Every structure is written in structure tokens, then in C-alpha cells.
Amino acid sequence: MNSEPRDADNLGRVRELTPTEAIDLVGRFEAGQELPEQMRADVRLLGSLLGRVLRESGSPGLYDDVERLRSATIQAYTDETSEAFERAAAIADGFSIERADEVARAFTAYFHLVNLVEEHQRVRVLRERGDRPSRNGIPDTIASAFERLSSEVGEETALARLQALRFHPVFTAHPTEARRRAISTSIRRLSELLGERDAAGENAAETRRTERRMLEEIDTLWRTAPLRREKPSPVDEVRSVMAVFDETLYTAVPQVYRRIDDVLQGENAGSRAPIVKPFVRVGSWVGGDRDGNPFVTASVTRKAAAIASEHVLLGLERTALRVGRGLTLDAGTTPPSDALVSLWHRLRAADEDAAAEIAERSPEEPHRRILLLLARKIAATRTRNADLAYRDPEHLLADLRTVQDSLVAAGAARQAYGALQRLVWQVETYGFHLTELEVRQHSAVHRKVLDELRAGHARSEQTDEVLEVFRSIAYVQERFGPRAAGRYIVSFTQSADDLANVHELASYAMGPGERLPVLDVIPLFETFADLQAAPGILAEIVTHPAFVSRMDATGRRLEVMLGYSDSSKDVGPVAANLALYEAQAKISTWAETEGIELTLFHGRGGALGRGGGPANSAILAQPPHSVDGRFKLTEQGEVIFARYGDADIAMRHIDQVAAAVLTASSPSIERRNRGAADAFADVAETMDVASRERFFALVKAPGFAPWFATVTPMEELGHLALGSRPARRGLSVESLEDLRAIPWVFSWTQARINLAGWFGLGTALDAVGDEQRLREAYEQWPLFRTMIDNVAMSLAKADERIARRYLALGDRQDLAELVMDEMLLTRSWVERITEGDLLGNKPVLQRAVKMRSPYVDALSLLQLRALRALRDAATESETPDAEHQRLLLLSVSGVAAGLQNTG
């Protein structure tokens, strides 16, 4: 392997394009993507502004070098000749290390801008579409789902299911968001400017002013360091996630409720009590997930809860003030109820000076005065002023409903169910805690600590910390309410004892006479063996006294978490998907028989190897009664900002997912899924066995783990300041068990192989062999269709030529051939089953992938150059070159931005 730069001019096989030819090639390529006209104009505008920034602020000749590499990778992508690809690689290798650094930054900036344009176009489409139903007949709004469900089960039953609906996303701090928050903030400002430019319309002066500000912002983006210098702390991660609540979710969720009620009630909306009940609950592992993260301590958990509470109480205070200032209804036209007058006297007695001042400013405006005093009580809750503070959100809700009832009685129903109702929804959704903080710890840690405690040994530092966590949960519940914390997830649950251990640890933690925290202990079944054992473990644990007591208190509710990441790494993506379906079916049947209200918690990541892909199609493919109106899943890394970073997109996502949750319980969907699972059980069995054998042939091969670390940038990812959590469990990677699922997936993605999302499927389909039968499965079996569609996306983002170069970094031709043979076999079968090109049935996604691919190729070639240099240094036992390390990390960030669903 030689890391020396190659001279593109010495290849002699494919001449380099002239500037005019390059411009023509790039233009033809971009024109061939069939972009909507507005989107094309946005891409052209931001691309030209970036080019201007590169010419003005980059080093001399940078813009020309970026264009050389860009045209070369487009040429290689369009004609697919090895000579064209070699020229592109030679250009990447021929840059000085300083120039390669700048070029990588330029392509990464381009991806940030393209991502912004795509998001902006999506918002345009959403606004233009409005409430129009989907074209494929599958409900994709709650209103359309309610209509379909009513036609099957009757309106009364459908209404009961709607009002029991629950969507529970849980934000996690898993490190898959490769860009800095400073970069995200700059992109958000650019998004606002793009909207202002749209609004400017024909106003040429305003358009010029907006474009000048966009140029300034892109220049700032270019000059901002793209990499974090240090890993974020868990508290940093908490504050980063809070930005999503502040900027979108706090206001977006009640808007979702309002839109649904508008559709369901028509002209009566806003003048009657809403039909829809708040169905969103937001959870968080940020500051609570300590499985393998030594930096998440009990102190961090307490801080995380306090930060979240501060944010929501500030929001509620400001909202109450705004609503109060708008309630300028005179007592003559809108007389207060007796209950409202009593509330006024009570509030005035507790806050005399403020009440007198407010009464003077708001004479004869009783409803306004109450809201302004309630705002003061919310502020006192935030600042911990015991004389005025609310004890819990239920008392605030009671006061708000007193105001609502008074308004309704006085004939002011629109004021009761307008802005005031949005405030009520916010309190019902977020309480005083904002996020329901969840704790996660590994079962092995519990066993080790309990062994020490039962033996009466001196308590170790780890034992003290584990016990302090339970005291922290009790503290959070006491200060912010029982909803603020209490879910305790046990990673790698392998027995009922693993769950009972949590309650025993809690009893050790609390002193004599102290009240135990309220705990909902949740098993997390992750490996293939654990998924198979799950029904038996659950049947045993629900007889445990602590579980019996808690289930009696909650109406026999039980939550069970399923891990997608480790099961996929354990047996491969095909067998893992089938095992997850089977586990859900068995657990759901058991729960229904036992009269248990089950919630399945899906530990999905962003990438396909971690359960990623469209959530709504996955929901509609679940076994009967495994959803039943309740859906909970993890949201992490780049997925959080992609789904919830923009208010319009967040509302659309929530609406789509909730619609799927409601639709999944319809008899027709349940019959379809049950029938398909029975009809294609033989296909599933054949695929399961064949895919596992193929997967084991790779991952259980002698020396696989170090080979994997050689042919991907896995080791280097540990140097990228993505998140606070370590990338592996041990000091080195000698087996897959040493490696966490996130870097396993992230590394294969960076190598443009995406192996974690598809390996074994080609062999599984080949084992079935019947092409017509597989096409029938694709048409009739939702689980199979979702699997095929997700693999199609994974393969579309992979690149055979670049993959071969990564695999060549390792001295194992046998393993490299195994990977490439399976890739080609899988691609062939997927194209035959779908009867077209990859993603041919998803033209918008196909267009996005094709538009990005040659630009991702450029970054991959730069990454390969850096990786070869680092591998050569390791072979020679030399100190790694810091400049090549930086280039590699820059390219990792850029490839992540280009491919998007990376981890």
C-alpha cells in the first residue's frame, strides 16, 4: 500500500476535462436529476454563493481544485469506467494535505447546504399539500386514520382508541450527529433566510439584501471549525437536546393537537372542548443512560432533570403571560364564575402586592388578572419560592380549567378553547419536567453490586454510585413529580432475577423510613437468545411482589424494550428482523391472554442496521396487538434534528407516526399481517437459517474483528468528538462483543459498504430461490416489503468501487470477496424482486441519493487517502500523522452529512 500522492496527468487513459467541458458535464448531471424548479434554483443559488466564498476566503486555487474533483467524480459516476474512477482518485491523492483538508471542508459545507435545501423543499411541499390525503390509500394523517378506523369498528370505538392513543419518542445521546451545534445553528439561520427570500417574491431590493446576508452566513459557516475540539459532556448533550424543545417541540406538539381537532370538529373547532386528548409524551435518556458511560453519574441525572424543568417552566410562564395579556374580556360582557372569584381571592391572599398591581392595570378584567397571577406562580415554581410555587402540574391544570369553565359559562367558549387550550395541552404534555427521564444500566453491573452488598463487604465506588442513582430518582420525583423519572431499563436482561434486582437495589439505597422511589422496571431484550427467552422471563417476573404491586397501581400496564442494534450485530440484519417480529408476536399474545396493557419500546437507531427507516411503514408491519394504540421508540443523533429540528417537519412526522399507530389496530391491518405471517412462514424460516449461516461465516471467521478495524475507520472514530459515551466496552477490539453497535454500523457506512443493513439477505433470498414467490411476498407481506425497501436504500448509498478499496486495506482476500459477493447477490435479488432499479419505486429518495452520490464519492476518496496513510504508519510502527488524522475526521463528518442516516 502506498500513501504517496498520485499524479492524475500520468494516468494517460482518460484525459482531464477542460473547464468548459467540466461545467457542461456538471450542468447536464444536475439537470438529469429532475429537481423541482424551486429546489433546483435553491441548489444553484447556495452552490454559487459557496463557490464565491471559496474564491474569496479559501486559499488561492481552492475553488478550481474543488471543481476539478467535482467534475471528475461526476464523470466517474456517470460513465462508470474504471479509468474515470482512477482519475478521480488520482486527483484526490494528488492534493497537498493542506489542500485536501480544504477540499473536504468545501464538500462538507456543500452537503450542509443541500440538506438545508431538501428540508426547505419538503416544508414547501407540506404547506402546499395541506390536509390532502395520501395517494396510495394508506392513511398518513390522524384524521384520515380515524376515518378509516371508524369505517371498520364504528365511530364510538374509533373515538375511544383515538383518545387512548400514545406516541412516546425517547431522545438519546448516542453519538451519530457528526456536526457541531455551531454548524447546526448557522444552518438554521440560513434556513430562515431562505424562507425570507421566498417571501420577498418580486421585490428585487429585498432579494438582494437577503442574498447578501446568506453570503455572509455561508462565509461564517466556512470559517467555523467543523470539528469539536473535545467530546461533549453529558450535560452538554442535555443542553443540545433542549434546543429542539425550545425551537420546535414546545409549540409544535399543541399545533398537532389543534390541527387534528380542526379536522374532526370542522366549524365547531375552537368553540367546543377538544375531542383529541394529548397523546405525545417525550422521554429522554440524555443524562440518564449510564450503560457503559462512566460520565453519566447520579449528579448528572439530577442536573439533567433540573435543566429540562427550567426550560419547560420558562416556556409555560411566558405562554401564561402571553395568554393572560390577550384575555382583555370585560366583566360586563364576560362575568366571572363563582369558582373564578374564589380562585382570585386565594391567589390575592398569597401574593397581595402583585395582585393589587395587576388589579390596577386590569380593572374589570377578571380572567386576565387570574392568568397573570398564574404566570407568577409558575415563575415561583421555577425559582423554588415555596410560598407561591405549585406543588405539581395537576394543581396548575385545575386552576387553568377553572378559568376555562368560567369563560364557557360566560359564553366565551372561543377564548376558553383557543390560546388557553394550547397552554392546557402544553401542561398536560410536558408537566413541570418536560421530558420523562429514563435510567438505563447493564444487568451485569446490578449483579456485581448486589453480590457485594449481600456479602456485607465494604462498599466500592461503583456500588455507592449505583445506589446514589436511586436516591436521585427519588429526589427528581419529589421535586418535579412522579412522571419526571421512574422508568428504569435493564440492558441485557437475561432472567427475571435481573429485573427483581432493581427493586432490591432500591431498598438498599433508601434509609430506614424513607419512601422508595416509584419504579417501572423495563427489560431490554437485545441478543437473539434473549429475544427468544423473553416471553418466559416476562411470565415469571409479573409474579414478583414488586411487579404485582406496581401493575395493580397502573391498571396492569407493562413496558418491554426490544433492542435492534445488538440483535442485528449478533445474528445479522435478516435474522434479527425476523426474531424481533416473532418476539413481538409472542409477547403480545401472552400479554393479551394475561389482560396486560403492553407497550413495546423499540430501540431503533438512525441507520438501517439499527432498525432505521421510515417509522410509519415499520409500525404498519408489526404483529397484531403489538401496537394497540401505543408506540414508543428511541430517537437519536442526526435523526433528532432531521425529524424534530423544523416545526413543519416535526408536526408532519408526529402526524404520520400517530396515524400509523391508530391504523395498525384496525381489523383489516391485523388480518393482513397475521395472514401474511402464516402464508410466508416457510419463506421466513428458510431466510432465517440461510442468512445466519452466511453472517456467521463472516463475523466468526478467525481474525474478523481486527480485520474489520483495519478496513474501516472504526478505530479513528474513537477520536471524533461525537458524544460523551465510549465507542467500545474494552481497551481493544478482539471480538464483536467488545464493540458497541453504533460504531459497528457507523464504520461500515463510512466505508460505503453499509454491511450492517443488508449482509445475508442475498443468500437468504437465494435459498428461497422462487422469484415469483418472493415477488408475492413483497406485495403481500408488509414485514418483507419493509425489509426489502430498507435494504434497497442501504445498497443505493453503498458504492462497489469504493467498497473494494476499503476492503483492500486488509490482507484478507477471502473476507473481502465474501463481502463483495454478498453485496452483488443481494443487489441482484432486490432489483429482481422490485422489478427495477434500486429505489425505483421511491423516485424522490432515488433522486436525492443520485444527486449526492458523486459528491460523497469525492469525500470517500479523500478519506481513503488518509486511511491508507494511517495504515501505512501503523505497519511501519510510526506515530500517526496528525494531519492525516484530521483529514480522515473531516471526511467522516462530510460523509455523514452526505449520507444522513448514518448511525
UniProtKB/TrEMBL annotation:
Gene Ontology MF annotations: magnesium ion binding; phosphoenolpyruvate carboxylase activity
Gene Ontology biological process: carbon fixation; oxaloacetate metabolic process; tricarboxylic acid cycle
Segments traversing the membrane: none
A GO cellular component entry from the record: cytosol
Keywords, alphabetical: Carbon dioxide fixation, Lyase, Magnesium, Pyruvate
One Pfam match: PEPcase
Cofactors required: Mg(2+)
Catalytic residues identified in the record: 174, 569
Enzyme Commission number(s) from the entry: 4.1.1.31
Catalytic activity of the protein: oxaloacetate + phosphate = phosphoenolpyruvate + hydrogencarbonate
Keyword Lyase: yes
InterPro entries: PEP_COase, PEP_COase_bac/pln-type, PEP_COase_Lys_AS, Pyrv/PenolPyrv_kinase-like_dom
SUPFAM superfamilies xrefs: Phosphoenolpyruvate/pyruvate domain
Assembly, per entry: Homotetramer.
Family: Belongs to the PEPCase type 1 family.
Function (record text): Forms oxaloacetate, a four-carbon dicarboxylic acid source for the tricarboxylic acid cycle.
Protein name, UniProt field: Phosphoenolpyruvate carboxylase
